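Appendix B. One record, verbatim.
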Amino acid sequence: MNFLVVTWNVDPVFFSLFGIDIAYYGLLWVAAFVVGAYVFGKMVQSEGLNPDMTDSAFMYMLIATIIGARLGHCFFYEPAYYLANPWQILNLRAGGLASHGAAVGMALGIFLYARHWKIPALWLFDRVGIVVAVGGALIRMGNLLNSEIYGTATDMPWGFIFVRAGETMPMHPTQIYEALAYMVIFFILMHLYWRTNLASRRGVMFGVFLILLFGMRLWIESIKQVQEPWEAALPLNMGQMLSIPFIVVGFGILIWALMRPAKPYINMPRPKKRSPKAEKELKAAMAAKAAKSSKAEKKSSKAEKKK
């Protein structure tokens, strides 16, 4: 039953530009933030909020996530090395980003963002899970293209032989498992947001997100290869140990949220009103555009009549 086994030998470099390798992984990280910003922008628009919130959130989350992911890898998995060589923390090209560290960094970014916009942090926590889920799916596909963070040996028919990692036996493609799980979580949260009133119950969506995402991670981590040799001696690997607190917090938040009545958010940032001068300039620009379009249509109509 190994007819579906995939021999995986994809070059992680998409192309080179002026001697610099552009990897699929980096491009998918960028795609994750771009898609996330688009989804978040749609939510901001649907709630009639200030559109500037989208660009601001993009920058806060980008910086906070990358810093958190990098520091998480350095101090969760290789603390001795990076404490002895702190300058290597800045060497992102050497690899090493931890999703649990990204979660901590993103949480701090959310609090800073909420302080900047003077909004409840829980409003963003409830919505950011949707963005994280779709972004996480893209990043895990980047891990697949890098032939990294895969699972243990398997006799299942869909195993992957990661040639570039030196493997000769089929391994669990846990990157695909996670990407699919993240997309399922994304659609569940999108349904809760767009089709139910749970978005008005503060904390419900965030609690569901934590339980689903880290519950899934707890299971998938059990069939992953350990990232560092010292993890092999532990009853649970580092990824599993870091997932448990998030699950506990998720249940706590969900129970707390369901015990409280729905409470709409008030005094949220609304679109800025244009000054009379700006409104006049906008109307003039729109009139000029309409006139130009009408002129082009008349010209096209005359040309057709001549034919």
